[in-house]
Amino acid sequence: MPQRSGLLRATGAVAAVTLLATACTGNEPATEEDTGGTQPVSSNDDPGQEVVIGFSGPEADHGWLAAINSAAVAEAENYEDIDLRVAEGTNDPSMQISHIETFINDDVDAIVLLPTDGAALTKVATQAMEAGIPVVNVDREFSSEFAARTTILGDNYGMGVSAGTYACDLVEENDLGGDAVITEIAGIDSLPLTQDRSDGFSDALSECDQDVDHRVAGEFTVESGEQAASNLLQAVPEIDIVWNHDDDQGVGVKAAFDNANRDEFFFIGGAGSANAMRWIQEGEMEATVLYPPTQAADGIRLARLLAQEKGMSDLVQVEVPRRIVLNAPVVTEDNVEEYLPLAFES
Fold first, then answer.
1. pLDDT in tens, 77-92
2. pLDDT digits 0-9 by tens, 45-71
């Protein structure tokens, strides 16, 4: 088990803009006019009892994961009543287990955990819950309902649905009809998240009598994206729509398009990187579907509420929900300015 020195205490002023698809708190106390004459006792954002929150995430070897980690730290800095303990990011489940054991031994007030492997971290997360420490599970689910007090997730199936619905709109708006050639560049096919994204895409396309004509898969890396896209372009001489699951992978995908001098198609991305949003602004990409990099930041807010025994001020229910699934909106030239502050660098 690593010593306490192996945990990094989040310090320093960090600025961040986070968007909660499910709002947890209000920034300003409501007025009597706002509430129809009733004044709440306090706002959830008002400083309360100090709480110690342990945060553990995977190694930031991918732009989205780096954004997840940095947004969590930045969000904690917004609250003077949060003492955030950050474990070193790792892709080793055994090391992450030891980090959680340290949090348990330190008797933190709450834990926010994006597990390297949900099944592998289930046992130690359950131990934390049994020790009376609420666990907020982020993005990759545990294999037991007893391992977390609250789970906050992106919507992988919803990403596919959003991409497919937008593709249907493009087919209609551009009179592509039944002859539209729609292609898909997936991530790692063995992962459930990839399967969910593909299922959602296919299901949405079926609503407008379309389907995926050609599909290739990468590995969520720049190199694999370039190779997969090159293979696709060689196999298909004319394409109408391309959906690429991941914007980090999309750096390589876009390079393949440029190298082949191919731009006859509408290019849709996934996740919401800064690169993708700049391409949208420059007219080199049609859209990207957001997979929110704010999930761990949202988890920090929820952990604070749980540790302080508060609920979510925008709900009538007095407790934090057990499960929250964030939206997967489509970012286009019409709304890119709104989402650009949330974008991550690849």
1. 999 999 999 999 999 9
2. 889 999 999 999 989 888 899 999 999
In this structure, is residue 260 part of a structural domain? yes
Residue type (1 letter), 67: A
* 3-class secondary structure, 319: coil
CB-based burial label for 234 (10 Å; 0-12, 13-18, 19+): exposed
**What is the predicted pLDDT for the residue at 316?**
86
Distances in Å between the alpha carbon of 154 and those of 126, 271, 345? 22, 10, 19
d(CA 121, CA 107) in angstroms, rounded, equals 18
Give the pLDDT score at 1: 33
Residue 74 structure tokens: 């930045």
Three-class DSSP category at 108? coil
Instruction: For residues 86 and 221, state if they share a domain.
Output: no
Q: Mean per-residue pLDDT for 34-55? A: 70
Per mean pLDDT, which range of 29-33, 127-131, 283-287 is the poorest? Answer: 29-33
Residues 13 and 6: beta-carbon distance below 8 Å: no
Are 217 and 145 part of one and the same domain?
Answer: no
343 in a domain, yes or no? no
Domain annotation covers residue 330: no
Reported residue count of the chain is 346
> Do 65 and 80 belong together in one domain?
yes
Nearest to 278 by CA among 244, 252, 257, 251: 251
104 with 140, same domain? yes
Q: What is the number of other CB atoms lying within 10 angstroms of the CB of residue 301?
A: 29
Q: Are residues 255 and 196 in the same domain?
A: yes
DSSP character string of 136-185: EEESS--S-GGG-SEEEE--HHHHHHHHHHHHHHHHHHTT-GGG--EEEE
**pTM score, two decimals?**
0.82
**Domain coverage including residue 88:** 4-152+295-314
